[in-house]
Amino acid sequence: MKAELFRKGDIAVILVILVAVALFLGIQSKQTDKLEAVITVNGETVETIDLSLVKEKQIFEFDTTPKVIIAAENGEIYFEYADCDDKLCINCGKLSRKGDTAVCLPARTVVTVSGSDVGVMTY
Known about the structure:
Blueprint: H1 8-30, E1 33-41, E2 44-50, E3 58-61, E4 68-73, E5 76-82, H2 88-91, E6 101-104, E7 109-117
Antiparallel strand pairs: 1-2, 1-7, 3-4, 4-5, 6-7
């Protein structure tokens, strides 16, 4: 007796799943977010950077104690230097996704990445 690897119903289910995955990936690739980094010092917004436009390295320094230096490049933003003891803000690494946040508590400096949908149709 000859054993079948797939039945007709199995092939139909596999095809439906593959089509659904292809459609999902196609829709996801068309949804782009405009990423913005917001830098606040002492609770006040001091800089807003459109990360999608940042290609070359940009340095941001503010009058904080201890001193911190924030760098942005290639669509990412991060604490490059901090004159504090623990350096937790530097250890947060590079922020590049919506919702990423890094904080230097001694300098009261916060970097947050936020996003907004681009290409949304309104009527």
